[in-house]
Amino acid sequence: MASNERYFGFLLKDVTRRYVHRFEHSAARLGLTLPHCKVLVYLSRQQGLSQARLAELTDLEPMTVVRLLDAMERDGLIERRATVEDRRIKRVFLLPGAEPALAEIWAIADRTRAEAMNGLSEEERERFFQMLELIQQNLQNVVSDSSEP
Length: 149
Known about the structure:
Helix content is 64%, strand content 8%. By secondary structure, it is mainly α. It folds into 2 domains: 5-118, Arc Repressor Mutant, subunit A; 121-149. Strands 1-3-2 form a 3-stranded antiparallel β-sheet.
């Protein structure tokens, strides 16, 4: 095993921590928090997620998500709708008022990614994303094949 392979997890965690810190710093200047950004991005990818599923995806406690959604609803960014099959389950949908915030989030993400990948060619970037997706799939397969959560 190459000596740097031993530190794979540490390196991945450190890169993630630094990337998230940089993103949060830029977002904070616009009045956005990382949890707000996560919720808006997940909803932009899939409208109608349940509050419980948003909590899972964003790694937030369900009560934290409820408070966050309360504020986002007051701000005219989202709306919650009860489902027909179970009125206790609330589905969350973006409102048109969320578009400016999403545009800012994507601009921050683009800038942060460009800063992080400075010095890498387009080909290296593409290969890097392919490798990350393969690693992600490998880990998903291991979790799917075992009794681990």
